[in-house]
Amino acid sequence: MAVVALYWLLTQVELADVWSLLVRLDPGTVLALLAVTVVGLLGRFDTYYVLIGRLGPARFRDAAAIDLVVNFVNQLLPSRLSGRVAAPFVIRHYTGLSLPDATAIAGLHTAMFALCYALVAAVGLVVALPGLSVGLALLLAVSIGLYLVAGLTVLLGGANLTVLDRLLAPLRRLFARVPIVGDAAAERLDGLVGFTTESTATFRELVVLPRVWVRYAAGWAVKHVLASGVRVWLLFGAFGAGVEPAIALPLYLVAAYSVTLLPVTPGGIGITEATATVVFVALGVPGEVAASAILLDRVLGVYLPALAGWYPSLSLGRPGSATS
């Protein structure tokens, strides 16, 4: 499906025109794009660093490795939530935190990410609504709604994980009656009860800290609003196009990229580029310009960092590591 979506996108534009736009980029613009990309990465890394640092000494390089590996996993399976499943083990590997604490950090990071995305994308959708077709607006609305539901669900679930203990108690009694393996199974379930208690306590400790929310939101905005918005603005300017008002461009972009949560293709590859291009064409940007800018923005902001995450992922599960 990703290949089909990319093929459709490329057949909607003249590849010769796209290439002529890309080669038109001057060295100053290229350097600015790279600088903005680095700033965006630092903002992304800080979203993990602020959470890990609240539980003890933390290294920024470990937060960077965690973010890169999770982003790498996101490109392997459909939906951004795929990498979040692996996140607790990645955090544990690089920080040495207990699995309950790592799970709490991963859960809170997921909830905060989804809520930030939903709120900003909703504003972008409202501002762009007059220029969008009904079908496109509904698609974005569904995607944004899923972000909101996912964020609230994880937020409430992480703060009330001990509710699972009510289910574990009768299961423990049932497994305890099983011959031979019953005692071992019951002991494992007892461990899960302790896990939910510790993880819930850590989650609740972090979720009520205003500084954590403010700093997380700042790091998220640097990556998803500032860096992406400036990058596409630079590309539009270099290609002789733009949107009005220009200050709304980052909001349009967040709304257009919200389809990455839909479990259609790994990391939203193809679907995201096609949808974002359609959104900006509807807002008056020429197709070749929109396609070129979106493809380059995704490469710099998503695919290259994901590729970089492949290398640190190789250390996961090695003998002697925290996850082995």
Molecular shape: globular
Beta-strand segment tally: 0
Instruction: Summarize model confidence as the mean pLDDT.
Output: 80
The percentage of residues in β strands lies in under 5%
Low-confidence segments, ≥5 residues, pLDDT <50? 319-324
Percent in helix = over 70%
Describe the protein in words.
The protein is mostly helical and 324 residues long. The chain has one domain (2-161, 207-313). 75% of the residues lie in helices and 0% in strands. It is built from 14 helices and no strands. The protein has helices at 2-11, 15-22, 27-52, 60-74, 81-95, 99-128, 134-159, 165-176, 182-207, 210-238, 249-256, 271-282, 287-308, 310-313. α3 (27-52) crosses α4 and α10 (210-238) packs across α11. The radius of gyration is 22 Å and the shape is globular. The two termini are 35 Å apart. Mean pLDDT is 80; it is low at 319-324.
